[in-house]
Amino acid sequence: MHPSADRRLAAEHWLLSTLDGPRRDWARMEWQQNGVALLPLGTLFSAVRLPGRLVTAAAGPLTPVELDAFLAQEPGGGPVICDPRGLRYYAVVPASMPVTWKQEVDDWRTVDVDCLGRGTYLGVPRVDATRLEPHALASYWSVPMASAALLCAPLTVARLIAAGRHRMPQEPEA
Q1: d(Cα 120, Cα 93) in Å, to the nearest integer?
Q2: pLDDT in tens, 59-94
Q3: Taking the CA of residue 149 as centre, how many other CA atoms within 13 Å lie in the half-sphere pointing to its CB?
Q4: Residue ranges per domain, the chain?
Q5: Could you say which DSSP state residue 171 is in?
Q6: I need a labelling partner for 84 at 20 to 30 A (CA). Which of 38, 66, 94, 140 fits?
Q7: Is the overall model pTM greater than 0.70, yes or no?
Protein backbone atom coordinates (compact mmCIF):
# COMPACT_ATOMS: atom_id res chain seq x y z
CA MET A 1 0.00 0.00 0.00
CA HIS A 2 1.19 3.49 -0.86
CA PRO A 3 0.64 6.27 1.61
CA SER A 4 -2.30 8.48 0.66
CA ALA A 5 0.02 11.36 -0.34
CA ASP A 6 1.73 9.09 -2.89
CA ARG A 7 -1.64 7.96 -4.28
CA ARG A 8 -2.79 11.59 -4.58
CA LEU A 9 0.42 12.52 -6.38
CA ALA A 10 0.03 9.56 -8.75
CA ALA A 11 -3.59 10.54 -9.43
CA GLU A 12 -2.53 14.14 -10.10
CA HIS A 13 0.15 13.05 -12.57
CA TRP A 14 -2.28 10.69 -14.27
CA LEU A 15 -4.94 13.41 -14.65
CA LEU A 16 -2.38 15.89 -15.98
CA SER A 17 -1.07 13.36 -18.50
CA THR A 18 -4.09 14.28 -20.65
CA LEU A 19 -2.18 17.49 -21.47
CA ASP A 20 1.14 18.24 -23.17
CA GLY A 21 4.02 19.84 -21.22
CA PRO A 22 3.18 23.58 -21.41
CA ARG A 23 -0.55 23.00 -20.87
CA ARG A 24 0.26 20.65 -17.99
CA ASP A 25 2.18 23.45 -16.27
CA TRP A 26 -0.75 25.81 -16.91
CA ALA A 27 -3.19 23.32 -15.35
CA ARG A 28 -0.97 22.99 -12.26
CA MET A 29 -1.00 26.78 -11.92
CA GLU A 30 -4.81 26.80 -12.31
CA TRP A 31 -5.11 24.22 -9.54
CA GLN A 32 -2.90 26.32 -7.26
CA GLN A 33 -4.66 29.61 -7.98
CA ASN A 34 -8.28 28.57 -8.58
CA GLY A 35 -8.57 25.01 -7.27
CA VAL A 36 -9.93 23.80 -10.64
CA ALA A 37 -8.32 23.18 -14.05
CA LEU A 38 -9.92 22.34 -17.39
CA LEU A 39 -8.84 18.89 -18.58
CA PRO A 40 -9.76 17.25 -21.88
CA LEU A 41 -12.01 14.22 -21.79
CA GLY A 42 -12.03 11.18 -24.04
CA THR A 43 -8.39 10.09 -23.94
CA LEU A 44 -7.78 8.64 -20.47
CA PHE A 45 -11.20 9.19 -18.98
CA SER A 46 -14.67 10.56 -19.66
CA ALA A 47 -17.37 11.80 -17.29
CA VAL A 48 -21.07 11.15 -16.81
CA ARG A 49 -22.87 14.36 -15.79
CA LEU A 50 -25.59 13.59 -13.24
CA PRO A 51 -28.08 16.26 -12.15
CA GLY A 52 -28.30 16.66 -8.38
CA ARG A 53 -32.04 15.89 -8.43
CA LEU A 54 -31.33 12.46 -9.98
CA VAL A 55 -28.68 11.66 -7.37
CA THR A 56 -31.02 12.85 -4.59
CA ALA A 57 -33.83 10.71 -6.02
CA ALA A 58 -31.53 7.66 -5.99
CA ALA A 59 -30.16 8.34 -2.50
CA GLY A 60 -33.08 9.93 -0.74
CA PRO A 61 -33.22 13.30 1.02
CA LEU A 62 -29.69 13.49 2.43
CA THR A 63 -27.35 16.29 3.41
CA PRO A 64 -24.47 17.04 1.01
CA VAL A 65 -22.05 15.19 3.27
CA GLU A 66 -24.40 12.17 3.36
CA LEU A 67 -24.75 12.32 -0.45
CA ASP A 68 -20.96 12.19 -0.73
CA ALA A 69 -20.92 9.11 1.51
CA PHE A 70 -23.70 7.52 -0.57
CA LEU A 71 -21.74 8.15 -3.78
CA ALA A 72 -18.63 6.63 -2.24
CA GLN A 73 -20.59 3.36 -2.00
CA GLU A 74 -23.03 3.45 -4.92
CA PRO A 75 -20.86 3.82 -8.06
CA GLY A 76 -18.40 1.36 -6.62
CA GLY A 77 -16.26 3.95 -4.87
CA GLY A 78 -15.00 5.43 -8.13
CA PRO A 79 -14.17 9.12 -8.33
CA VAL A 80 -17.02 11.64 -8.48
CA ILE A 81 -16.73 15.41 -8.83
CA CYS A 82 -19.40 17.71 -7.40
CA ASP A 83 -20.21 21.12 -8.85
CA PRO A 84 -22.16 22.65 -5.95
CA ARG A 85 -23.05 25.81 -7.90
CA GLY A 86 -24.67 23.88 -10.75
CA LEU A 87 -25.91 21.10 -8.45
CA ARG A 88 -24.33 18.47 -10.69
CA TYR A 89 -22.14 15.46 -10.14
CA TYR A 90 -19.62 14.01 -12.59
CA ALA A 91 -18.81 10.31 -12.33
CA VAL A 92 -15.32 9.79 -13.78
CA VAL A 93 -15.55 6.78 -16.10
CA PRO A 94 -13.42 5.03 -18.75
CA ALA A 95 -12.79 7.07 -21.90
CA SER A 96 -14.69 4.54 -24.03
CA MET A 97 -18.04 4.93 -22.25
CA PRO A 98 -19.57 7.60 -24.56
CA VAL A 99 -19.10 5.19 -27.49
CA THR A 100 -19.69 1.79 -25.89
CA TRP A 101 -22.82 2.97 -24.02
CA LYS A 102 -24.13 5.22 -26.82
CA GLN A 103 -27.72 3.90 -26.87
CA GLU A 104 -28.07 4.18 -23.08
CA VAL A 105 -26.47 7.63 -23.11
CA ASP A 106 -29.05 8.77 -25.67
CA ASP A 107 -31.85 7.42 -23.44
CA TRP A 108 -30.41 9.13 -20.34
CA ARG A 109 -30.70 12.58 -21.89
CA THR A 110 -34.42 12.58 -21.02
CA VAL A 111 -33.39 13.03 -17.36
CA ASP A 112 -30.60 15.52 -18.15
CA VAL A 113 -27.78 12.96 -17.89
CA ASP A 114 -24.99 13.20 -20.42
CA CYS A 115 -21.79 11.28 -21.05
CA LEU A 116 -19.00 13.72 -21.86
CA GLY A 117 -16.09 12.48 -23.91
CA ARG A 118 -13.77 13.46 -26.74
CA GLY A 119 -13.95 17.14 -27.65
CA THR A 120 -15.16 18.14 -24.17
CA TYR A 121 -13.33 19.69 -21.24
CA LEU A 122 -14.21 19.26 -17.59
CA GLY A 123 -13.34 21.49 -14.66
CA VAL A 124 -11.39 19.04 -12.51
CA PRO A 125 -10.60 20.08 -8.92
CA ARG A 126 -7.22 19.61 -7.29
CA VAL A 127 -6.91 16.04 -6.10
CA ASP A 128 -6.95 17.18 -2.48
CA ALA A 129 -10.09 19.36 -2.85
CA THR A 130 -12.85 17.70 -0.86
CA ARG A 131 -15.98 19.06 0.79
CA LEU A 132 -14.19 19.04 4.13
CA GLU A 133 -11.67 21.61 2.93
CA PRO A 134 -12.24 25.37 2.93
CA HIS A 135 -11.70 25.83 -0.83
CA ALA A 136 -14.71 23.62 -1.61
CA LEU A 137 -16.77 26.59 -2.84
CA ALA A 138 -15.88 25.57 -6.37
CA SER A 139 -16.03 22.00 -7.66
CA TYR A 140 -14.65 19.39 -5.30
CA TRP A 141 -14.16 15.64 -5.17
CA SER A 142 -17.34 14.21 -3.69
CA VAL A 143 -15.50 10.89 -3.91
CA PRO A 144 -11.74 11.43 -4.30
CA MET A 145 -9.64 9.38 -6.70
CA ALA A 146 -8.38 6.43 -4.68
CA SER A 147 -5.59 5.81 -7.17
CA ALA A 148 -4.51 6.75 -10.68
CA ALA A 149 -6.77 5.29 -13.37
CA LEU A 150 -9.20 3.75 -10.83
CA LEU A 151 -12.54 4.92 -12.26
CA CYS A 152 -16.28 4.40 -11.79
CA ALA A 153 -17.51 1.24 -13.47
CA PRO A 154 -19.99 2.07 -16.25
CA LEU A 155 -22.46 -0.59 -15.07
CA THR A 156 -22.62 0.82 -11.53
CA VAL A 157 -23.14 4.35 -12.91
CA ALA A 158 -25.94 2.98 -15.12
CA ARG A 159 -27.54 1.34 -12.08
CA LEU A 160 -27.39 4.62 -10.16
CA ILE A 161 -29.07 6.41 -13.08
CA ALA A 162 -31.75 3.71 -13.31
CA ALA A 163 -32.46 3.94 -9.57
CA GLY A 164 -32.70 7.73 -9.75
CA ARG A 165 -35.00 7.61 -12.80
CA HIS A 166 -37.24 5.07 -11.10
CA ARG A 167 -37.58 7.19 -7.95
CA MET A 168 -37.84 10.62 -9.59
CA PRO A 169 -41.27 12.21 -9.52
CA GLN A 170 -42.90 11.89 -12.91
CA GLU A 171 -43.64 15.16 -14.68
CA PRO A 172 -47.14 15.39 -16.16
CA GLU A 173 -47.36 15.04 -19.92
CA ALA A 174 -48.20 18.18 -21.86
Answers
A1: 14
A2: 998 988 899 999 998 767 799 999 988 899 999 999
A3: 5
A4: 4-167
A5: P
A6: 94
A7: yes
